[in-house]
Amino acid sequence: MIIPRILVFAGSLRVGAFSGQVADVAQKELALQGAEVTRISLGDYPLPLMDQNLEREKGIPGEAMQLARQILAHDGILIASPEYNASIPPLLKNAIDWVSRVRRDGDRAVKPFGEQAAALCSSSDGAFAGMRGLYHLRAVLMACGAEVVTPQCSVPHASKAFDSNGDLVEERLRKQMETVCRALVQRAAQLSKRADA
């Protein structure tokens, strides 16, 4: 049985961010479903604004290469994203844009996002739960070649959505998260590079 490797991160660096709490829940659920989970922060990969002039002059930033390598080392990714003006937060979009520019790692041709399954979660203190931003995020990742699983989990009224242990209060949301993680684990296992070994 293949144990898929899943990379989890949030699209926000704000202290106490709801997306970070959603990522915490996803991390626990993925582990319960048998995945090998790695949790990172985009704050560990500080990047300048994506600029092709900068890329031409200086090349792809080292932090973008490091993040690309993290993604490529996993069979799937789960992103927990906030919503900014009904779309993708700039921190997350900038990271995706830089990583998508990585074409080679040494002598090896690579395609970050093109070799992994991806799953999406969102959160907001409003009723829309950040789900409007996921339409854009899904489209961007698909344009980068990612296979995004259909189920997603969107957490509304997020300031009241978690108990003292950091778990989701509502049974409906817990089931959503289970479904998302199950779909990701199954597809990531199928796509695993170790499947050919």
UniProtKB/TrEMBL annotation:
Residues 4-158 form the NADPH-dependent FMN reductase-like domain. GO terms for molecular function: FMN binding; oxidoreductase activity. GO terms for cellular component: cytosol. InterPro entries: Flavoprotein-like_sf (IPR029039), FMN_Rdtase-like_dom (IPR005025), NAD(P)H-dep_reductase (IPR050712). Pfam families: FMN_red. This is NAD(P)H-dependent oxidoreductase. It comes from Tianweitania sediminis.
